[in-house]
Write a structure and sequence with these properties.
About 15% of the residues are buried. It is built from 5 helices and 6 strands, in the order E-E-E-H-H-H-H-E-E-E-H. The strands form 2 sheets. A 4-stranded mixed beta sheet has the order 1-4-5-6. The chain is α+β, with helices and mostly antiparallel strands and about 210 residues long. The longest helix has about 35 residues.
């Protein structure tokens, strides 16, 4: 399979404080000083931007995977566990759950209602799942519409809009939190799916 290369603009910036400039390292030119800023672009900085973009792409794909799991849960809840091909199930999945008007946010709200109605998750897991799904949605939107840049001395940044302009520092702590959230969210969705299946088993036994 061919790996494609597409044109991408890189943004590098430098934050400095005039009152902290070491003028002993400056070159005087008449009434002005030539201030050395150093090398703003380097292979190391470019590598960080490339990794951030790669991670951002994984977030987009992983969010799609989470959304498919949410759709599967909704399908099982409203129509029961899969027991074979059924045209009603196919139409509901393709024309309702996966329609463009059935947004991620709306699906997330339905999941919360289902969990609350039957107490399908216990303790803090109920609130944790809703938070995880919200955080994942926000990260997906930030990387889909935001701008990755490199700033000295802050490092690699993600600038995006969410009720105003926001900036996230893309350090290891940031990425580790994302990893943990996705894995924990997937774990709770599997638990929820299992509990929904048990709900149908209880109804069949009554």
């Amino acid at each position: 399979m061919k790996e494609i290369t597409l044109p991408i603009t890189n943004t590098f910036s430098l934050t400095s404080q005039i009152d902290k400039v070491d003028y002993s390292q400056c070159e005087k030119m008449g009434d002005s000083y030539l201030v050395p800023l150093g090398n703003m672009v380097s292979p190391e900085k470019q590598k960080e931007i490339d990794i951030a973009r790669l991670n951002g792409g994984k977030i987009l794909y992983a969010t799609t995977s989470i959304e498919r799991k949410v759709e599967h849960i909704l399908l099982d809840y409203f129509l029961g566990p899969f027991e074979g091909h059924e045209e009603r199930r196919v139409i509901f999945e393709n024309d309702v759950i996966q329609s463009s008007s059935f947004s991620y946010s709306f699906k997330k709200g339905l999941i919360k209602k289902i969990v609350d109605s039957h107490e399908l998750l216990h303790g803090k897991n109920k609130n944790h799942l809703n938070k995880y799904l919200t955080d994942i949605m926000n990260w997906r939107n930030a990387f889909a519409h935001g701008n990755i840049k490199y700033n000295d001395p802050k490092g690699c940044l993600l600038e995006y809009y969410s009720a105003g302009k926001k900036t996230s520092i893309l350090n290891d702590i940031y990425w580790e939190n994302i990893e943990k959230t996705y894995y924990e969210c997937e774990r709770l969705l599997k638990e929820l799916d299992k509990n929904i299946s048990s709900l149908y088993e209880e109804n069949d036994n009554n």
